[in-house]
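User: Predict the complex with zinc ion.
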Amino acid sequence: MKNQYILAIETSCDETAVAIVKNQRELVTNVVASQIESHKRFGGVVPEIASRHHIEQITVTLEEALTKAELSIDDIEAIAVTEGPGLVGALLVGVNAAKALAFAKQKPLVGVHHIAGHIYANRLEKEFEFPLLSLVVSGGHTELIIMDEHGSFEVIGETRDDAAGEAYDKVARTLKLPYPGGPQIDKLAQQGEVSIDFPRAWLEEDSFDFSFSGLKSAVINKMHNAKQKNEDLPPQDVAASFQASVVDVLSTKTFRAAEAYGVKQVIVAGGVAANSGLRKALEQKFEAVDCELLIPPLHLCTDNAAMIAAAGAVAYQQGHRAGYDLNANPGLNLEMYGRRGS
Ligand code: KG4
Ligand code: ZN
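Assistant: Here is the predicted structure with zinc ion placed in the model:
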């Protein structure tokens, strides 16, 4: 049988990424041109700078992906691209590059939801078994999602305010750590003691929703008060205690949801899936139960195009095609995306 290659483009935030996946699940190349250094001095992603970088990087990244794969564009079956959610100016660069390539080479075009991508990153490691539960934890999202079949997404819980990664980045800024703060807090937390009892927002008893803004404020207040009273508050203890609170809520709610929905697999997705505390807590919780826990390797946790190719390959197989009117959709809804065309 002829091999099927899907090329994908991801430019929703601050990484210009192009990847090629073979026969849905085999990663061929995964090129990520990160802009983190350019955004660092501003303490966060500056949308205008992100768009400009994407424009500068997109063609070379595309060429690099094909060269590394030792493939020509003629070998590619379809072009997948992140259509949303994300920064509109950033998304537009990827969407237009994908449309231009699809038009010039007369290839089918497939639009992909960024979060569907984060979930499908796991399928490059292990075949899915349904029903499955996915915990999506990134800079913009904190969601618990049930999938009964490929391409179908039911959001059973989400954050009511800050995303987990956003809370990490904001607390990191208060601790004067460089951007992105998540990995920095993670590292610092490993040297500290959980000595401060920060709040955990459990919300209503049966709720799978999350809330992190109260925790974030509690951390900021604690540091402010300590400074005013000239108290010694070791930053590593603040990091460890903050991380303990986030990880406790994320892992407990994920475990409860997995039990409530009787899922066969639990998959963790998004940048915060790289967190060592979260990985450990989930591994401990799921060790004794008959439910498989999948956490992607670090390079597939943060934004990349391999995940978009993996999700795009399934959407392509299911017959989804985008027209040349495909547009960037910064607020694209995951459940609606899953139901498109059905
Ligand atoms: O998925 P991602 O690369 O981009 C979005 O779609 O948002 O996630 C980025 C987020 C950032 O907030 C970053 O601080 C966080 O993931 N992150 C981490 C870790 N590595 C990345 N948060 C906690 N611990 C980590 N090790
Ligand atoms: Zn992401």
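The pocket of zinc ion (ligand 2) is lined by residues 114, 118, 138, 270, 303 (CB under 6 Å).
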